[in-house]
Specification:
Layout (H helix, E strand, L loop, with lengths): L10 H14 L12 H8 L3 H13 L3 E4 L5 E4 L4 H14 L4 H22 L2 H14 L4 H18 L3 H21 L5 H23 L2 H20 L13
Antiparallel strand pairs: 1-2
Helix pairs in contact: 1-3, 4-8, 5-7, 5-8, 5-9, 5-10, 6-7, 6-9, 7-8, 7-9, 9-10
């Protein structure tokens, strides 16, 4: 068997891996200022350029924030869900994933979520959804589009499943772009869409209050399909990457 030579991982990646593990395990708490570069260079036995390359890796992952200047340094931060959404979105863009595919994935995730919310009909969840629905009635135009999109984000947030929430937020990040780019915010069509969406949200809230899980799922499935057709109808945009144009 012919074996090609194996390259040892770059030292900067190894340093980043050690620090990353320490952050995630809580060995270096959130908000901690890392030791000066000279001390870290000595501890790891690396040069300044290597250490700074490791910092760039960690900073791109939102695990540290590098402050420049005499009193600067690297402070430990927590990775954000926006970072995940941004990178996941780039992969979808690179793979040429269609916007319809993203909307269909949202429906697959959100419909069971509303079914579970109706089964639970938790008073705290209902109160939060009531607050969002009330706000929707007070805002219009572009702000109204954002408010109605936030209702979907709230369903994922209130579902209680952290993994599904994170995946949903990644899709939400892309759909939010599509809603802002493709939906009209003025005129008759926009007003009609606003009324339809607001009505669907109020009906869903009523079904969740009543514990009507099956009906909630059916309603939400129809609503998501209609929303997808409305947003994508007549649009020349077909893939996620088109939203960057």
């Amino acid at each position: 068997m012919e074996v090609t030579s194996l390259r040892e991982p770059k030292m900067a990646d190894r340093v980043a891996a050690v620090l990353r593990k320490m952050f995630i395990r809580g060995e270096i708490p959130l908000g901690t200022m890392l030791p000066p570069e000279s001390e870290l260079m000595e501890r790891f036995g690396v040069s300044r350029p290597t250490l700074r390359e490791a910092f760039r890796v960690l900073e791109s992952e939102s695990l540290i924030q590098v402050q420049r200047g005499v009193k600067g340094g690297a402070r430990v931060t927590s990775p954000t869900r926006e970072t995940l959404a941004r990178y996941a979105g780039l992969i979808l863009e690179y793979d040429g994933v269609t916007l319809k595919d993203v909307f269909d994935a949202r429906a697959t995730l959100e419909t069971p979520m509303v079914v579970q919310l109706a089964k639970d009909h938790d008073p705290k969840v209902i109160a939060e959804l009531e607050r969002i629905v009330a706000r929707e009635a007070d805002v219009h135009g572009a702000e109204g589009v954002d408010a109605r999109t936030d209702f979907h984000a709230a369903i994922a947030r209130l579902s209680g499943n952290k993994t599904l929430q994170i995946v949903s937020e990644m899709l939400h990040h892309i759909i939010e772009k599509a809603n802002r780019s493709l939906q009209p915010t003025r005129g008759t069509k926009a007003e009609q869409a606003e009324r339809r969406s607001g009505k669907a949200h109020r009906l869903l809230l009523d079904l969740i209050k009543a514990g009507e899980a099956e009906k909630a799922g059916e309603l939400w499935s129809r609503h998501l399909k209609g929303a997808e057709e409305y947003v994508l109808a007549g649009s020349e945009l077909s893939t996620v990457v088109d939203l960057l144009e």
